[in-house]
Amino acid sequence: MSEPQPRGAERDLYRDTWVRYLGYANEVGEAFRSLVPAAVVWLSYGVASSYVLADAIDKGKKAGEVPNPEAGRSARVTVAVVDTFVWQALASVAIPGFTINRVCAASLYVLGTATRWPLAVRKWTTTALGLLTIPVIIHPIDRSVDFLLDSSLRKLYPSVGKPSSS
User: Fold this and answer.
1) Nearest to residue 92, comparing CAs of 130, 138, 128, 136?
2) Closest among 134, 166, 138, 139 to 150, alpha carbons compared
3) What would the mean pLDDT of 129-146 be, rounded to a whole number?
4) Band (44; pLDDT cuts 50, 70, 90)
5) Which of 158, 21, 148 is nearest to 166 (CA)?
């Protein structure tokens, strides 16, 4: 998950506990796409999107509770919600979902043209490859989204209200 918390530090429910794995639900759904009805895949996106929304609301609530005479409360809350929502939507849902979808589609196609395996074996192999890809893509995507937001959206925030890196 993340680095160990210093003694007395508050644990972030959305980043330091099992709840974080709800953000990966759509990647699991994409890995299983060839084996399950489309409604199951869409449900996995609903779970991951709910996680993103809940984390953004939580960060906004926490930003509103921090006393800061230099920045207005509504500005701090807005920056926290927008930054968390955009970061999580990109790093937890959109980019990894697309990546796993393409890895699975490509592997199913290649297995179909390069092997004579039965369709069920090709589908299960594709699912296994998709699942094995998830831990490999997480950190590069997270760092890339940090770079993207640092180079764009985060330059628009008032300096006082900038959130710490995700």
Assistant:
1) 138
2) 166
3) 96
4) very high
5) 148
Provide long-range contacts, Cβ within 8 A and 24+ apart, for 38-44: none
Least confident window among 42-51, 58-67, 85-94: 58-67
pTM: 0.86
Q: Which of 78, 48, 79 is nearest to 164 (CA)?
A: 79
What is the structure's pLDDT at 4?
55
Structure tokens at 43: 């449900």
- Alpha carbon distance 82, 17 (integer Å): 22
Contact status, residue 42 vs residue 48, Cβ threshold 8 Å: no
How many residues are present in the chain? Answer: 166
Instruction: Give the pair of three-digit tokens for residue 166.
Output: 């995700």
Any idea what the Cα angle at residue 73 is, between residues 70 and 75, rounded to 5°? 85
Contact 133, 32 (CB under 8 A): no
* Nearest to 166, CA basis, from 57, 65, 56: 56
Measured CA to CA in angstroms, residue 14 lies from 2, 20, 90 at distances of 11, 5, 16
